[in-house]
Amino acid sequence: MVNELDLLPTEEVIELLLQAETRVVPAVRAAIPGLTAGAARIADRLNAGGRLIFVGAGTSGRIAVAEAAELPGTFGLERSRVLARVAGGAASTDDDEDDLELVSRDLAELALSGRDTVIAVAASGATPYTLEVAQAGVAAEAEVIAVVTVAGSPLARLAEVNGGVAIEAVVGEEVLRGSTRLTAGTAQKVALNALTTAAMVRFGRVHGDLMIDVVAANAKLKLRSAAIVAEIAGSSLEEAQQALSDCSGSARAAVLVLVTGLAPEQAVARSQAHPSLRELLAP
Description:
The protein is of the alpha/beta class. Helices cover 54% and strands 9% of the residues. It has 13 helices and five strands. The mean pLDDT is 94.
């Protein structure tokens, strides 16, 4: 985009970088059909007992890992059902994306199955590590969702040809040419946020705009969970906190206790057996 970036004043460099970010939302919006299909398929596989597995290398892999790390606490998913692999692990380097021995090790640990969803994230759509894992996903009959920032990449074709989904958020050239940690990285983060949040809505882990299954792992989240219960049930915060205590921390069950008068053990059993709190509350 700019072949004399190093000659510009710092303020102009920053302005160019920020201007490039304005391309992200239009690029992700153009990928809404793929995001919509991907979210529905993730929810279907989770409903069937499958796992959600994020893979990538370099910046893409680290973004994928961050996305996976947030889902269990936000939506109450078992950690064994949301996994992530970045080429080279926590100490990954740029060398690792070409090391196919890493693929064999990671695939042995993952033991992919036909109930799983593999979300393969690669800005270029051509990263060897990510392509190999996606191909293994295809072989295992897993759902493969490609998240890329270019059009017509090998990873997108692999997903689409085998009945999966390609999410192409095409952002164009980086201000710092080739540095996909910039605009491409932002686009991948936005796309993954939209994809997973929409999937969790379809999976029944959201009530209205509330995180009904948030894991209350600290004082702040315990208060948030109680506030969610109080808002849905129309109760006081103190009543919500007591109901949560009686229901072993289950916000769904606490709402049922307060709204329907069910005994806590009945409310817990019913909430575990049904994915939708809204349907449980329906007259």
